[in-house]
Amino acid sequence: MKMLEVNDLNVWFGMGRDRVDAVLGATFNVEKAESFGLVGESGSGKSTILRALTGLAPHWSGSLSVDGHPIGKKRPKSFFKTVQMVFQDPYASLHPRHSVDQVLGETLQLHGFSDIDNRVVKLLDDVGLGQKFRFRYPHQLSGGQRQRVAIARALAPEPELLLLDEPTSALDVSVQAEILNLLADLREDRGLTYLMVSHDLSVVSHMCDRLAVMKDGALVEVLDVDALRHMKASHPYSQQLLNASI
Amino acid sequence: MMEPLLDVENLWVKFPSRHGVFDAVRGVSFTLGRERLGIVGESGSGKSMTGRAILRLIRSPGIVEADHIRLEGVDLLKKTEKEMRAVRGQRISMVMQDPKFSLNPVLTIGDQIMESYRLHNSVTKKAAYKKSIEMLVAVSIRDPDRVMRAYPHEMSGGMGQRIMIAMMLIPNPEILIADEPTSALDVSVQRQVLDIMDKLVKERGMGLIFISHDLNLVADFCDRVLIMYAGRVVEVCDADKLHEAKHPYTRGLLNSLPRLDAPRDRLDVLERDPEWSRASSVSGRI
After folding, report:
1. What is the pLDDT of residues A88-117, one digit of tens each?
2. CATH code linked to domain A2-244
3. Chain A residues closer than 8 Å to B229 by CB
4. Is the ipTM of this complex over 0.85?
């Protein structure tokens, strides 16, 4: 069963002489409960694929379908219950004047849950923060704690597919280890599907089963992590990327 | 022995707060020759504060104290604010952590690079434009003409950081303080940017202070490394021997990295010992 199907996706920004084609004919599938990685250099369009999926990049063509339902220009409410995103920078993705309780409570309310109080407590426990963080503001939290809040927010509507846009690139290595462990545990407990974007091959190989290498907006290769570990990338660009990260 | 470019002795950075004085940097000493010196540590370890203190960029109420911070024998702490302005940018340049906050959002990239160049050199606009394009090409930006016309929000993080580096290198400084210059970049571009900086250090005889949290990168790129924890230097070692480091903090950091060649189910999480922050600083002087 496919969780996500992406067929011949093109995404562009701007027009005329300033038009930039960010993604060119990307095609890949992600199975249910699989963890799929997208790697490539900055500007290769890996984050743009996630943004096009969630509707943050409005100009796209091709076909996208999540859990068998094709995505149109307007996304139904059920889409946002199935798909959630964790952003790169935990410093920018949380409202500075909303407490953790407000952030999570609002999300739950928007998705029509009734037992908000219990759910907020449970979410905080699930991401390893606990009750004492409930009424704190983002500036009272460290980077790792903020990213945990962002993950809790993404988990609030009980999604099946989680889009992770460089979830640890703004964090210290010691904190990165904690967050990666948390994400691995959550996936195991809830049977989540991950689509993870990262420029760090070792992080992707730690988290994912399969990965796609992107260059200048195009997918150059899809390969298994095992093949990656044995340095068996066939495309010269993936080889180059591998050599640069060892 | 040749006089070092920069000589820092017993540097403290203090912030008075309601709960007493907070010491962000505690008694750091090191020298910098024409070499690449790495400073590694987690966020909050005081590595960025050390870089900023050298340029006296710590604003009141923060306090910078040191026995001396000598730039080629002249103590920077004794300079007036006006004299410092001739040092910043011209003799010691700094690439800040986040290009999003270092670039002016309402000016085009071109205007900003040209401004920094024309501030230090009296040249025509046309010559400044040519030089700016040259620098953008030097930091391997494709399509520099479009970038010159673009605004910072149209740039990706990696491009923004390369633009910052181009801007800082135009005045040809003697010391470059690079505060996490490549953390926003990906491996292949990281290499290119490091190669550019490497070339400059070698060709122009610049000194480089490279602040980073990426141990592997520092081990690869620098000559010497200071490892900081809670405001003090816990260990000093040659970069190529970093993987044989003795201090438990350094070992913990090394072990928490995922590795391509050695897969593990779970990553090690660093266990902190309060004893690490109590001991006094190790000197990085030669």
Report:
1. 888 888 999 999 999 999 999 999 999 999
2. 3.40.50.300
3. none
4. no
